[in-house]
Amino acid sequence: MRGPDTPVEGADPEVLAAVDTLAGRWGGRAAEAERARRLPDTTVTELLDAGLLQLTAPPDFGGTGHSWPTLVEAARRAARACPSTGWVIGVVGGHAALAGRLPRAAAETVFAAGARQVFATASATAGGRFTRVPGGFEVAGRWRFCSAADHADWFLLNGHGGDSAGRILIPLSAGQVRVGEGWDVCGMAGTGSRDIFVDRVFVPGALTGSLSHCFAGRQPSGGGPSPYYLGEVPFLPYVNSCVIGPVLGCAEGAFAACLERFARDAGGSHPLEQPLVRDGLTESAAELACARHLYETVCARLHTAGTARRPLSPEDAAAIGRDRAYLARLCVRSVQRLVRLAGTAAHFADDPLARHWRDLQMAAAHRDLDWARNTAAYAATAFDPGGAGEPGDTGPAAGSAVPPTASGCERTA
């Protein structure tokens, strides 16, 4: 029987061992990260030194080119100790693959210093704009929700390039961006998902990429497929699903914190012997077991399609969206029950259970986990007559359970 510590198929055990070794340090800094509203510099250095932010960077540019399950499983294990650290591994770490999917000239530019870099993304504009000018685009304005902005070497900005250009992706170096303060939140504060500001920067057209091209499937470079499939498959369902590792790990960390609390003999009350506590813990454990099953199913669908170098069918893409959204629902429901069982003592700011609960609510609000949005996509495929399309359909909706205009970059609901 698979347990919570059994790695999903396709995950590199050496990477997971490195995460497990460092996780205790990250957990010890979780309160510090929350107060500072960013990960400590020491943590980011550890992530880079261990190669955990380079897991999906293309081998062509010095990356390790790991599989998608390695990324999400590393994020899941880190999030048990510090959800913000898990988020940065899974979500921000996944951006290294996106950087490698830029047009060749742009990818060579951003990876000129090697793969040991932090790539932040932003697609939630708040007045941010791209204006076509001779030779390229002028970038100006404000973008929101840039996780790890304080530590980023590059920012991959998403927006409309005008009627003829559609949505495009533009990389800017850290020196071309001002990082604002806008991240005074009650959950996932340690991710440092701040606002960024750009003051009229010119970007040559050769360094900009069509969003549809960056996410599309492509032929392998070098004449044949390599073990690194994230540079070849349609990418949107992979990047949209990176959040499931941090969400599940956060809920598992909350359960462990709750068990530790109840195992302590508080004034002789022996809470683990109380029927109400045992009943609640059992139901929450069952929900997390179901969430783990959905997590493994999503990982298997994506990894199987990736290794076969095939786009997801519309049915698979819709099921992935459904499963990741329901996984988040199960995690929230499970931890909410734990918080009720623990009572008011679980709401002190530095209490690990309280922190995991705050972080989980914020993470579960991510757009890619929105239940209504994902169920609409699933219902259109599963229940509408002819909604699934013909077998083997690889049109715009194939491989994605979200509208084709979605960015796949950092965003929330």
UniProtKB/TrEMBL annotation:
Residues 245-370 form the Acyl-CoA dehydrogenase C-terminal domain. The keyword Oxidoreductase applies. Keywords: Oxidoreductase. Residues 29-93 form the Acyl-CoA dehydrogenase/oxidase N-terminal domain. InterPro entries: Acyl-CoA_dehydrogenase, Acyl-CoA_DH_C, Acyl-CoA_Oxase/DH_mid-dom_sf, AcylCo_DH-like_C, AcylCoA_DH/ox_N, AcylCoA_DH/ox_N_sf, AcylCoA_DH/oxidase_NM_dom_sf. It comes from the Bacteria. Residues 383-413 are annotated as: Disordered. Belongs to the HpaH/HsaA monooxygenase family. This is Acyl-CoA dehydrogenase family protein. It comes from Streptomyces chitinivorans. The lineage of its organism: Bacteria, Bacillati, Actinomycetota, Actinomycetes, Kitasatosporales.
